[in-house]
Amino acid sequence: MFNAVKEEAIPLLRRETLGAMDEARTILLRSPTEAQRPHYSRIAAVIESNKVLLRSAFLQFEPAARRVAGLFYRIWAG
After folding, report:
1. CA 26 to chain centre
2. 8 Å CB contact between 48 and 39
3. 18 is in which domain, residue-wise?
4. C-alpha to C-alpha distance for 14 and 56, rounded to whole angstroms
5. Is residue 1 part of a domain?
6. 6 band by pLDDT with thresholds 50, 70 and 90
7. Angle between the 37-60 and 62-77 helix axes, to the nearest 10 degrees?
8. What gap in Å lies between CA 52 and CA 33, rounded to an integer?
């Protein structure tokens, strides 16, 4: 269960969510072995694709973006 995101929290949640996705992608692309690299690159590509979709949601569908941001915040904040 999650609570609605307050309007004033949206910019912070946007930055934190996209930042966490960038960090995860960077870590995956710096995988230590050649055997892992193809798999990690595919996962990183999915993260990048989801980031583009999430940015679109933030721009076009503010109420939906708040729900998505709240969900991501709960997942990453633990």
Report:
1. 13
2. no
3. 7-77
4. 12
5. no
6. confident
7. 140
8. 28
29 within a domain of the structure (yes/no): yes
At 1 the three-state DSSP class reads coil
Tokens of 41: 């690159």
Tell me the per-residue pLDDT of 33-53, one tens digit each, with 9 for 90 and over: 888 888 889 988 988 888 877
Q: Is residue 12 part of a domain?
A: yes
Mean pLDDT for all residues in the chain:
79
Q: Which two tokens stand for residue 48?
A: 């990048």
Q: How many domains does the chain have?
A: 1
pTM over 0.70: no
Q: Does residue 63 surpass a pLDDT of 70?
A: no
Residue 2 lies in a domain: no
